[in-house]
């Protein structure tokens, strides 16, 4: 049983900086690393509290993903390996904002424990409950890890650090730790056993290897963003070799390169540029980029004369959707009875991708607000939910019902194949490692080059901009962020501008991770998309109190 006096005392080692007001946003807490010790300590308390209240292991991931190296952040992982429920975010924010140790204890006692436990928190089941912790490669990781450990231990819950692991690995481990009560905690190796094991099973036999010859280069160049992906991706080399794929890792952090600086999935997707240290990669090569914590993945190919041909999260979703449709067509009709397939996107999905989904694949689609927690939830409502943000974060979720049906018909080759896919694809969150294996498998299976994949549909030219305004919360949206509600009159102004562009589409929304308003525009040709984005940014600047030079 724990003692709130111990919590109060431990908390005094991690005072909150004055004027620091963190908020649990789209991706947990994020800020300059130097400000975060109290926040991470308190997340340790919260993760331990949830472990006690739910009588399960929980998780904490210390990372700021694709943000600059001086930032850091922390995300909570629930016992099922998913993200902490949104209903808990307000309490997390309240706890992180407590001005002193008494307030920390009061929030914990009155807001965290009382409402969920009717006054008496359960004890930590023999002390076996554990908070599983992972972190990325940031230099601030060790001190923030110490804060997290102190927070967890203040509630007499065990803490286990997996060290430098990817965000999806930590989610996977938390999920598997809760599968068998009282079993020892899973080793990191179990992640590779499941995911690579399924990949090897799917690709076994010489047929796939032969399919690659001539149709696709054996070389795959991976930009690791100088992040945690480098070490973990290295472990895939033998598996990919068995498929005839030679994986070369770049921006591994070992050459002194900076995390996410001119490299990584976010840089490649937003700036459409070749990552640093990759100028020697031959034109047309198959390349991909992961982000700093390896939960995002985009593919690309260097073009003649510079630039890249990008295959973003939308293209990954379409590749998965096409392949899954092919396999499902082979399944017996009774297995598919009442099975709902759905593809989830956000407003950032390219208009051409949405049109391809609806008109060619004829799959039901859903649009949610930005942030994987929304997409994940929507995908969960289907039996087979495909969700990817354009930035490359996403996965494919299989419902329990569907998996059970597939298991019952495992003798059918297509059922077996889908079952293996449900193991190859991380079911807890988007995962760049699992994504690379999935894409390499599908390309080989379909005998497609990157060019074949790219040709599924042609992206409408688009442009993303961001600008600062006095108070970004003055901008509010509706209809999955596609319509701006305030400031009054802003949507009319945006709609008027859009009407002057062929295939024009644009929207604005406040970022959940940065102090900025994001503008997205697409149109028939690139110059028009650029111009539309600029005009919309100007409207935001004028109507929402822009800061700095007018766009
Ligand atoms: P914000 O800053 O709210 O736009 C960004 C990404 C999201 C999501 C989160 C979390 C874009 C336009 N937005 O959110 O998709 O990935 O970061 O990492 O890419
Ligand atoms: Zn990330």
TrEMBL record:
Annotated Gene3D superfamilies: Alpha-D-Glucose-1,6-Bisphosphate, subunit A, domain 3 (3.40.120.10), Alpha-D-phosphohexomutase, C-terminal domain (3.30.310.50)
GO biological processes: carbohydrate metabolic process; UDP-N-acetylglucosamine biosynthetic process
Pathway: Nucleotide-sugar biosynthesis; UDP-N-acetyl-alpha-D-glucosamine biosynthesis; N-acetyl-alpha-D-glucosamine 1-phosphate from alpha-D-glucosamine 6-phosphate (route I): step 2/2
Catalytic activity: N-acetyl-alpha-D-glucosamine 1-phosphate = N-acetyl-D-glucosamine 6-phosphate
Positions annotated to bind Mg(2+): 65, 291, 293, 295
CDD domains named among the record's database cross-references: PGM3
SUPFAM superfamilies the UniProt entry points to: Phosphoglucomutase, C-terminal domain, Phosphoglucomutase, first 3 domains
Family, as annotated: Belongs to the phosphohexose mutase family.
Function text: Interconverts GlcNAc-6-P and GlcNAc-1-P.
Protein name, as recorded: Phosphoacetylglucosamine mutase
Organism of this sequence: Volvox reticuliferus
Source lineage: Eukaryota, Viridiplantae, Chlorophyta, core chlorophytes, Chlorophyceae
